[in-house]
# Entry
Amino acid sequence: IVAQPGLDQPSIIIQDRNQLSYLIGGLKPNTKYRVQVRARTVAGLSISPAMIELTTNYSLGI
# Structure
């Protein structure tokens, strides 16, 4: 996994229960990233965040 300095994003709170996706901008092509996802309910935050690993596509330069 490649760490990209300066790409840390603040916590994002999605309050719409129907929202199933979120677009993260500023990522580099053909680069692996890790994203932590946590649930928050009236009882508080989930105990451990889910770690999602993703790789961006190659850029076509268009």
About this structure: DSSP finds no helices and four strands in the chain. The CA atoms of residues 10 and 24 lie 11 Å apart. The two ends are 26 Å apart (CA to CA).
